[in-house]
Amino acid sequence: MQDQHELYEYARSRTKQKKRLYLHFIVFIVGSIFFYVLNKVLNVGNELTTDWFVWAIVLWAFFWVLHFINVFITKRFMGKEWERKQTEKLVSKQEEQIAKIKKRLEKETNLKAESEFYTEQKRTEPKKSETIKKQTITLIAAIANDNALGKDNDLIWHLPADLKRFKATTSGHHIIMGRNTYESIGKPLPNRTSVIITRNPDYKAEGCLIANSLAEALKIAKNDASPFIIGGAQIYKEAIHYADKLDITEVHHSFEADVYFPEINTAIWQEMGRENFTTDDKNKYEYSFVTYRKK
Question: How far apart are CA 235 and CA 197, in angstroms?
């Protein structure tokens, strides 16, 4: 295994370092004796006023001490493992910076989409002499505990009462959704105008209208007094900034999910109505129908 191989290579490297240090020490001892014999026995360098062999031995000892420090301190505490940890710290900091940049870009994208929508609304709004029809943009969703929406591009519960309410509420209106949401449904829903948001300019779906942004989708539905946005999570996250109403089915149960509805900020949204229901033969979870209006 990789970890075992790394441990083996590290142990082998440390063994080689210690062998070299040991050999250096042996050579140092032998060399020191050799210098002493040269001077004291063979009288080499006796004409010099200083004991040259002592300085040679001291200098050599200094280099051996450096070798010792390198093996037992520097390479032990600042070796590959230390380098790996330092690299991981740098990578972690870089990932944090990337996450911040992504968050800022996402915020800028949402602000840009919102700006485009309101610019388009301003450009196309009727003159004062014309009859102005107020449009109510509604997000409709069923969410479980922790704002769970679904998993693997599908619902993770079956609640016939919610499906019945969804049909009754959205019939006769435009329903705006992302491409993944539409493909999870698989077909246009009857008695409704399906508007699909996709970045793919060549995308087509029989019986549906195609938009390349949320602003464009709302422009398509501008003559509908109550268009509904039905998902998915990214569309909800973008649309909640300028929605007027939330129609929420709260499923009082915890599920494993991979997509979530955005947090409903009570400083912005006011609960206008709530109906609570218990389980029955068809609906195996307790649930509530909740309506919010923007303050």
Answer: 9
Claim to verify: residue 63 and residue 192 sit in the same structural domain: no
In the block, which residue shows the tokens 């290579």?
9
Following CA atoms 235, 246, 142, 114 in sequence, which dihedral angle do they give, to the nearest 10 degrees? 10
Listed range (42-46, 63-67, 215-219, 244-248) with the worst mean pLDDT: 42-46
Count up the domains in the chain and report the number. Answer: 2
Q: How many CA atoms lie within 13 Å of 43's alpha carbon, on the beta-carbon side?
A: 1
Half-sphere exposure of 192 (CA within 13 A, CB side): 23
With beta carbons less than 8 A apart as the criterion, state whether 230 and 181 touch.
Answer: yes
- Residue ending a domain, choose from 78, 108, 125: 78
- In a domain, residue 93? The reply is no
Strand-strand pairing, 269-277 and 209-211: unpaired
Phi-psi region of 4 (alpha: psi -120 to 50; beta: other; left: phi over 0): alpha
For residue 124, pLDDT beyond 70: no
Structural domain includes residue 243: yes
**Taking 50 as the threshold, does the pLDDT of residue 149 lie above it?**
yes
What angle, 0 to 180 degrees and rounded to 10, lies between the N-to-C axes of helices 2-40 and 52-69?
170
Tokens (6 digits) for 238: 């973008």
Q: What is the dihedral of CA 226, 231, 237, 243, to 10 degrees?
A: 10
Contacts of 53 (CB under 8 A, 6+ apart): 35, 36, 38, 39, 45
The answer to whether the beta carbons of residues 240 and 262 sit under 8 Å apart is yes
What is the reported pTM? 0.57
270 and 192 together in one domain: yes
The residue segments making up the domain with residue 185 are 138-294
Q: Is residue 9 assigned to a domain?
A: yes
